[in-house]
Amino acid sequence: MIPPVTMTSDEIRAVYSAGSDAVVALVERLLGLLTDQQVQIGALSARVAVLEARLAQDSHNSGQPPSSDGLRKPPKPQSLREHSGRPPGGQPGHPGETLRMTEVPDRVEVRSPSACTACGISLREIEGILAGRRQVFDLPSLRLEVIEHRIEEKRCPACGERSVGAFPCGVDQPVQYGPGVKALGVYLQVYHLLPFERTSELLADLFGTSPSPGTLHAALHAGAAALEVTEEQIAEALRHAEQAHFDETGVRVDGKLQWLHTVSTETLTHYAVHPKRGRDAMQAIGILPAFTGRAIHDGLASYFSFNYEHVLCNAHHLRELTFVAEQHGQAWAAAMKALLKEAYRRVEREKTQGADRLSGYAVLEIEARYAALLAAGRREVEGLASPRRGRRGPRKQHPAMNLLERLRRYRAETLRFVRDFRVPFDNNRAERDLRMVKVQQKVSGSFRTTAGAEAFCRLRGYVSTIRKQEVRVLENLRDVFQGHPFVPSLHTPPTPA
Question: Residue 56 domain-assigned?
Fold first, then answer.
């Protein structure tokens, strides 16, 4: 901070009495201090603007998750879907999910009248006829089944040799939990995201006894080890996919920030955790270097260092355009947001009518309007003051200019969904696959070890994959612990137009 200049009346008169040269020197000194203060005020004002812009970011105008919004409610994002005009709820002709009677109940309880309601005579010996029935679907009392395996020893009558039977594969302790309990524990942790302690408590409430957190931890790692080959098969299928979604998010592992990377399609999911976010991590994971299809991502620079067809996520663009329009008053950003949403609706409308592309005229019109908005945006953004790097350093490029330049440089990657109906408008497929892992972080706080994070990723990727393929999760996790895991379909179907 520049200290304030203070002078008494006597000091001012002394300078005046010293002559014009002393007065000129004093004024020049004061002007110099004023200039320094103006520079400092400008730098502080720019810093305040940056901080205010950062505070104004939430889930509706940036990539921040809704969980970061706290108690304040940001404006609700407007849906890109057009209103169908139909009332909410089930539509006429929809089969519904009503509970229906079964013809073969597990148990029948007959309720007969014991006496006549008119005269009171006993009816116990009178045979009744069915007057009505109702069914209740309920859970039986839950208890663990204890299976005791015994082996016998037999002596050969011919040679006298003693032979002993063998315990089943996997039964290697005097007392242990079976594959069903281990599968349920892993299912609750990996799919429903319960921590070890709460999983143990839930199993105790259900069955009266439960595995300890240490036993659950061992089951998690055993299940992950059994899926090592399956995980590599999923990764290999993703390398040859026609189209895949890529994304990454920060996770806490052993108290440090690491990055969770996902690659996904409509039928496959792969997760990997790595200390880095960019190219080094992508190389180590090993899917991107061999991928030659169409990659949908959020524009992280590292993705562009690989050779494939790029598609940028327009959901990210809409949030950034919202921020620039609201916080910096940029009219071009509001108009660009409206154009992208209009283009999306036109594409979706044509899809519902059976078309596989927009007309050439419609494509050229959208691209021409896009180019015109970029030109208008450059004229508008150039009037914005950019923050300095320090007190006297060069100015940083304004965030609005950064967004404008990305939209200009990657206009083909941004508008590819207009020319090719197989290309999605956004990267929501990958974001949905990451969302539940972020929920796990909220519930458990972090992964305690890298090995634990890797085991969770492998099991979660497997569960996500079989869930996408409409395979029952719990019974297939049981198969994992019995040594013959279900192998999901590794064929990635062609992307529908």
Answer: no
H or E stretch at 480: helix 473-481
pLDDT higher than threshold 80 for residue 100? yes
Categorize the per-residue pLDDT at 57 as very low, low, confident or very high, splitting at 50, 70 and 90: low
The domain of 356 spans 315-384+396-409
Q: Are the C-beta atoms of residues 418 and 355 closer than 8 Å to each other?
A: no
**Which residue is it, tokens 């030659």?**
292
Query: What is the rounded CA–CA span in Å between residue 55 and residue 235?
Result: 39
Q: What contacts 24+ positions apart, CB below 8 Å, involve 287-293?
A: 287/235, 287/238, 287/239, 287/263, 288/246, 288/263, 290/239, 291/238, 291/239, 291/241, 291/244, 292/240, 293/240, 293/241, 293/242, 293/243, 293/244
Q: What is the pTM of this model?
A: 0.79
Please choose, from the candidates 292, 244, 248, 236, the residue with its C-alpha nearest in 3D space to the C-alpha of residue 264.
Answer: 244
Half-sphere exposure (Cβ direction) of 222: Cα atoms closer than 13 Å: 20
Mean pLDDT within 173-190 = 94
Please indicate, yes or no, whether residues 366 and 458 belong to a single structural domain of this protein: no
Residues 377 and 406: beta-carbon distance below 8 Å: no
Query: Is residue 252 domain-resident?
Result: yes
* From 95-99, 187-191, 194-198, 283-287, the region with the lowest mean pLDDT: 95-99
Domain membership of residue 104 (yes or no) is no
* Three-state secondary structure readout of 180-239: HHHHHHHHHHHHCCCCHHHHHHHHHHHHCCCCCHHHHHHHHHHHHHHCHHHHHHHHHHHH
Answer yes or no: do 379 and 242 share one domain. no
Higher pLDDT, 66 or 193: 193
Distance CA 321, CA 332 (A): 9
User: In the sheet that 309-312 helps form, which strands lie side by side, from edge to edge?
Assistant: 269-274, 256-264, 243-253, 294-297, 309-312
At 20 the pLDDT is 80
What 3-state class would DSSP assign to 160?
A: coil
Count how many domains the chain has.
2
Query: Smallest Cα–Cα separation from 202: which of 220, 189, 215, 221?
Result: 189
